From TrEMBL:
This is NADH-ubiquinone reductase complex 1 MLRQ subunit. It holds the Pfam family B12D. Keywords: Membrane, Transmembrane, Transmembrane helix, Ubiquinone. It comes from Helianthus annuus (Common sunflower). The lineage of its organism: Eukaryota, Viridiplantae, Streptophyta, Embryophyta, Tracheophyta. It comes from the Eukaryota.
Length: 91
């Protein structure tokens, strides 16, 4: 019984499905950890929850301006700028 179930689901055709689901679960887990550990609006401990609404703009700004956003801020919004320039610029 276990061998037929194993052979049914572990074929090479379903490897991309497992990879896609694994990547999706990884992204969800990463976002969950990021929100629990760094989001100023998420309070896990009872002491922080009892504080009510906080005006912590500095902490919110630090959360919103993360490293990826700072890296991408001054970049061109093109995926392949050299190829786009080759086909778009008449010479």
């Amino acid at each position: 019984m276990a061998s037929s179930t194993f052979n049914r689901w572990l074929r090479p055709e379903v490897y991309p499905l497992f990879a896609a689901v694994g990547v999706a679960v990884g992204i969800c887990g990463m976002q969950l950890v990021r929100n629990i550990s760094g989001n100023p609006e998420v309070r896990v401990t009872k002491e922080k929850r009892s504080a009510g609404v906080l005006e912590n703009f500095v902490e919110g700004e630090r959360y919103a301006e993360h490293a990826v956003r700072k890296f991408v801020r001054n970049k061109s919004p093109e995926i392949m700028p050299s190829i786009n320039a080759f086909f778009a610029d008449p010479k």
